[in-house]
């Protein structure tokens, strides 16, 4: 969904290197898996070249 929303808002799809979610593998609050702090992603976008 993050990829879709980025591309839909105008980010060139070729610039998106990697998107990864961490909620299920590296929770910040392991005792509360449904906590909002656990829902996060990492997005790596390639620099735009002229």
Element order: H for helix, E for strand: HEE
Cα radius of gyration in angstroms: 14 Å
Mean pLDDT: 90
Helix proportion range: 10-25%
The count of DSSP E runs of length 2 or more, i.e. the number of strands, is 2
Could you describe the largest sheet, including whether it forms a barrel?
Answer: 2 strands, antiparallel
Sequence of strands across the biggest β-sheet:
1-2
Given helix and strand content, the structural type is alpha+beta
Q: What global shape is seen?
A: elongated
Can you tell me the residue ranges where pLDDT is under 50 for at least 5 consecutive residues? none
- Spatial separation of the terminal alpha carbons: 28 Å
What's the number of helices? 1
